[in-house]
């Protein structure tokens, strides 16, 4: 499998052509390739192909988590794909349209320097209706904001949304003291999330700035998350803690999120090319 590796503020992805692995069972390949010690190492993989006959998109993408499970959407993963398409010269357009399981996302190139590409991503409208996330809580369409969720023997206040993929956001006085390693997997696999969920740990710095850490579904702790950053801002706005635009600080930098309900959400952030190579396909059809 010929691949390229890129990252969005440390959230790294393998990008490969779908036709190069046609007919293969992709999950075992993704698990091997993403392994940090015996593979290439990545948080996930994105397989793409031209969107032939699709007037709304340039390419279509299949997104996988490091554990081999499918993801409906990845903000950093799709931005890494957009950066790859520009970097390789395969699609050197100012705006790139990528079809995902949850619809077409648009990426507008704002700048480039030394293998780093800055895009404004149009991620669509956040979903807060429980049945559409999906989450088995509540009895109607009202958003679950600051909801007391029972986790083990304790209650955790959560705000739940979807950016095409499910998110569970929590607030803490200091994210570096938050129990990410303990609470992250418990929330990811909580029985109220039929498809599991991504988890955000958020610290509000001021009205236009937050700090966030992430436990990603099918991955574990990650240095950054595109949809997680967007969901964090959605949760902070719904809780009245911040106003758009909001800078989301992560371990290796920051992203800018803009959202005025009920419009779509925009995320500005980098994607950096790392390397390309060839990974052996020792997988069973």
Report on this structure.
The protein is of the alpha+beta class and 285 residues long. Helix content is 15%, strand content 41%. It has two domains: 2-124 and 271-278, Roll (Diaminopimelate Epimerase, Chain A, domain 1); 130-263, Diaminopimelate Epimerase, Chain A, domain 1. The protein has helices at 26-34, 75-87, 180-188, 226-238; strands at 2-8, 11-17, 44-50, 59-65, 70-71, 95-100, 103-113, 116-122, 147-151, 154-162, 166-171, 198-206, 209-216, 220-222, 246-250, 253-258, 266-278. The mean pLDDT is 95.
Blueprint (SSEs and pairs):
Blueprint: E1 2-8, E2 11-17, H1 26-34, E3 44-50, E4 59-65, E5 70-71, H2 75-87, E6 95-100, E7 103-113, E8 116-122, E9 147-151, E10 154-162, E11 166-171, H3 180-188, E12 198-206, E13 209-216, E14 220-222, H4 226-238, E15 246-250, E16 253-258, E17 266-278
Parallel strand pairs: 2-3, 4-6, 11-12, 13-15
Antiparallel strand pairs: 1-2, 1-17, 3-4, 4-5, 6-7, 7-8, 8-17, 9-10, 10-11, 12-13, 13-14, 15-16, 16-17
């Amino acid at each position: 499998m010929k691949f390229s590796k890129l990252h969005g503020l440390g959230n790294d992805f393998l990008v490969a052509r779908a036709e190069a692995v046609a007919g293969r069972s992709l999950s075992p390949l993704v698990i091997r390739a993403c392994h940090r010690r015996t593979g290439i190492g990545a948080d996930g993989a994105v397989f793409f192909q031209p969107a032939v006959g699709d007037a709304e998109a340039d390419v279509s993408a299949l997104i996988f988590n490091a554990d081999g499970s499918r993801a409906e959407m990845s903000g950093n993963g799709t931005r890494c794909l957009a950066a790859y398409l520009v970097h390789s010269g395969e699609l050197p357009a100012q705006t790139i349209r990528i079809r995902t399981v949850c619809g077409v996302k648009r990426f507008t190139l704002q700048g480039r320097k030394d293998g780093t590409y800055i895009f404004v991503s149009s991620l669509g409208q956040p979903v807060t209706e429980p049945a559409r996330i999906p989450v088995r809580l509540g009895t109607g369409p009202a958003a679950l904001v600051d909801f007391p969720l029972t986790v083990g023997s304790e209650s955790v206040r959560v705000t739940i949304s979807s950016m095409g993929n499910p998110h569970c956001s929590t607030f803490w006085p200091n994210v570096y003291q938050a129990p990410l390693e303990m609470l992250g997997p418990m929330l990811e696999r909580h029985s109220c999330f039929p498809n599991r969920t991504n988890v955000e740990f958020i610290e509000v710095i001021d009205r236009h700035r937050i700090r966030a850490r992430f436990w990603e579904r099918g991955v574990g702790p990650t240095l950054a998350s595109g949809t997680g950053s967007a969901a964090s801002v959605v949760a902070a706005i719904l809780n009245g803690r911040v106003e758009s635009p909001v800078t989301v600080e992560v371990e290796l930098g920051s992203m800018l999120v803009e959202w005025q309900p009920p419009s779509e959400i925009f995320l500005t952030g980098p994607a950096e090319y790392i390397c390309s190579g060839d990974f052996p396909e020792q997988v069973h059809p």
